[in-house]
Design a protein that fits this description.
This protein is of the alpha/beta class. Bound molecules: nicotinamide-adenine-dinucleotide.
Length: about 700
Amino acid sequence: MAAEYRVDGDVAIIEIDNPPVNGLGYAVRAAVADGIGRALADPSVIAVVLTGSVRIFSGGADITEFGTDRALATPTSREVIALIEDSAKPVVAAISGTALGGGLELALATHARVAVDTARLGLPEVNLGLIPGSGGTVRLPRVIDADEAAQMISSGRPRTAAELAALPGQRLLAAVVPADTDPADQQRAVIAAAADVARRLARADTPSARTRDLAPMGGAGLPALRETVRARARGDRAPVAGIDLVARAVAEPFDTAMTAAREVFVALEAGPQSKARRYAFFAERAARKVPGLDPATATRPVHTAGVIGAGTMGRGITLALVAAGIPVTVVDTDPEALSAGLAAIEANLERGVARGRLSAAQAAARRAAITGAGSLEALAEADLIIEAVFEDLEVKKDVFTALDRIARDGAVLATNTSYLDVDAIAAVTSRPEDVLGMHFFSPADVMALLEIVRADRTGDDVLATALAVGKKLGKTTVVARVGDGFIGNRMLAAYRAAATALVDAGADPVDIDAAIEDFGFAMGPFAVGDLAGLDIGWANRKRRYAADPDFPRDTLADALCERGRFGQKTKAGWYDYPDGPRSRTRSPEVADLVADHHRALGVRPQTFEQAEIVDRLVFALADEGARILGDGIAARASDIDVVYLAGYGFPRHRGGPMFHADRAGLAEVAQTLRRVRGDTPDAVAPLLARLAAEGGRFTD
Ligand code: NAD
């Protein structure tokens, strides 16, 4: 059975048991319905407690049933919910761990809920491009303030039982019990508290109120919330739809609001955004399975780590490691850089405490786990060493030559290089099987992506260890092979080149950013340049111009830098920032430079359709992705999408560049690229050209 049924005195206990997340698949629904039926039929039972495991009440719908007949098999979630809500004997939910999505909707249909204070309750359906489809939008605003309900639904973020119990006037939780370090004791305590509430309800003079019969609460803030969320959602429909449904739940009768929610759910589920988000969800899971790597491969133990370089990346990587409980020795050979790095780490921890992200005790533990050192010799005992020194192959080779001498046998030696040849770095050691790339993104303690670079001779156990560390750090991991810029930065180069080419064809950079932001990116390519700093690319270009007189000049970007326009840090880049990052405005000086640039090229300034701008940039990404696949740098098109979603801000409701290209149709993609780039053999990646001709897709 997917749920256990037992009777304790006069209370029946139904315990959902469907590892790993107690998903509400067909078997669970049937077992819960069966339990309710038994309790109703048993005269010795006066009330029911519905619970899950100590770790999870229920994670919600079984996502593998989406779009299949099993999702609709009787009893459906709605039928089980009706059975509970209409039950003549009170049903009380006992929540330990998490209650998410359909799991929380099930609990909302019970007559009262009791939770452990640390339990997390949420309706995360927006993450799959959906709204809660089983009454969450209609019942939640009946037990907490509608504004709070709408926040939870539109953000998808769970909240703790302790927080929810403190909301004024809430009827969501009848009681909260303290967490216990012993899981079995905790589970017993929450069930006992729920049984008490259930008995009280059963013995009351009046029947227990059904959530559906309660009046909605509050909702005055919904119009303002809708406006904020709409602006931030950039075309992502579900978050706004969720707020609208809460507003309808406040204004309309229960059944009308339920019908509306059902219709919106069905429309969203069948629509492109939810398909894209569900694809992304499975793509991330698939990325953890590496072709040719036995999932049972034993990993090496990683109890301690070393980080080399206390610069931008070294700091973030150190913070990420200690947050996951791995103590770090940070080495920087420049004493000033070391103390600056340690001070920046300290400031970050203090900020975390000030903003309530960290407790003082957590910050203290992380601080205590960090040791600074001025020489690599300090890393002799480290299990994992991550190098984040200057992006210079010779410097990195020197570091790895020294590590080969210093590091203990079996230590994993990783480089955070963005572009360089990891095989060449491994080759300076006597143990290339221990070497691989662990490419973090800035800021490394925040960004979700970790590109793991499997060099030619990287050992399977070393790769498996890096994947396990990535998981421990909470990162989204993707494995790439060695090649300039691996997956992400190589694509970024193609994307930027497409943006530059579009300007060269007469476009205004401001229009390009506007189109890309309308597509769903938080920032267009030029705004991103201003954020990162234009001087870095300029310094790079100057080196390349010096080395190769034929290296193509980026004259417009050079002109900006020559005028000291380095981006946000100088309050001037592609835009002006008179009052900091949020004050981005069009720059008359840049407009003049763009006009000069167009004149010098002999092109007429022109306004491109937004769709044309998006096609040119996003299809360039997909084309580079096809080349990356063709070169064997990425194993799957979906891995490329994961990189771009997790590391480069591609709008999740569009699925990723490869998914988006598939949706547009690869013949159309190839045709656009040939139109823009000229019909040369190199205009379209060979893999893309072949799939376009065959009517194939990247993501099949
Ligand atoms: P950074 O210049 O901020 O920091 C590098 C640090 O390494 C400096 O503090 C320097 O003193 C130290 N260092 C130099 N040589 C050393 C040596 N031999 N031994 C010990 N310490 C040494 O650079 P960063 O931006 O942190 O980049 C570090 C690496 O991470 C580079 O390979 C870079 O390509 C890569 N990376 C950077 C980013 C980013 O956004 N900045 C993102 C991903 C990867």
